[in-house]
Amino acid sequence: MATQINKSLKLLALLLLVLGASSANAQIKYGFKTGLNFAHFTGDSETNDAGADLETWKNATGFHIGMTFGYKFTDQFGVRGEFLYSKRGSKYTFEGQSYRIFQHSNGSVLTLGTSRYLINVNNSYLDIPIMAYGRFGNFEISGGAMWDCLCNRVAKVPCVIPARPFWATTHT
């Protein structure tokens, strides 16, 4: 996986070098882009016996930064692309019934109770969107493809709060 990412980055660097070398043409434009990301994860939630959700996901604020380029074939048609580092994530909370099994030399211990887990999920991506656009008077339509590469993922657990004491049962 890492060698594939390295090959892709080398190919992209070569492409940017070629574009930079041909910048004498006034139709190529470069720029800088930065901004905020408001990411939110969704999915099925665990439920308790009564059907209430035990998991919640909240928005996390991230950012993106990188360079942009554009090439005009004509006044009405061209392509745009970006090379961005993007940070996205979410805040996860689990509060409900839980158990733990501890192994030891005489067997195992099953502990039951209620816990609250708070986890901050942060993902770092390399984003490369490329779009073609067409202008028709005051109207513009664009479409293209985007390649995302997950570069790093981190799940930080700031705290685990037992909401109710655990009790233990020994199993052998």
What layout of secondary structure does this protein have?
Blueprint: H1 2-21, E1 28-39, E2 55-72, E3 77-104, E4 107-136, E5 139-171
Antiparallel strand pairs: 1-2, 2-3, 3-4, 4-5
Question: What is the gist of this entry?
Answer:
By secondary structure, the protein is mainly beta. The chain has one helix spanning 2-21, and strands spanning 28-39, 55-72, 77-104, 107-136, 139-171.
Describe the structure.
The protein is built from 1 helix and 5 strands. It has one domain (2-171). 3% of the residues are buried. A hairpin with a 4-residue loop joins strand 2 and strand 3 (77-104). The chain has 172 residues and is mostly beta strands.
Strand content of the residues, in percent? over 45%
Mean pLDDT: 80
Give a short account of the largest sheet. Answer: 5 strands, antiparallel
How many separate helices? Answer: 1
- What are the low-pLDDT stretches, counting only 5+ consecutive residues below 50? 166-172
Q: How many domain modules?
A: 1
Global structural class: mainly beta
Could you tell me the radius of gyration in angstroms? 25 Å
Distance between the termini: 43 Å
Strand order of the largest sheet: 1-2-3-4-5
Assign an overall shape: elongated
Overall helicity = 10-25%
Please state the oligomeric state of the protein chains shown. Answer: single chain
Number of strands: 5
Secondary-structure element sequence?
HEEEEE
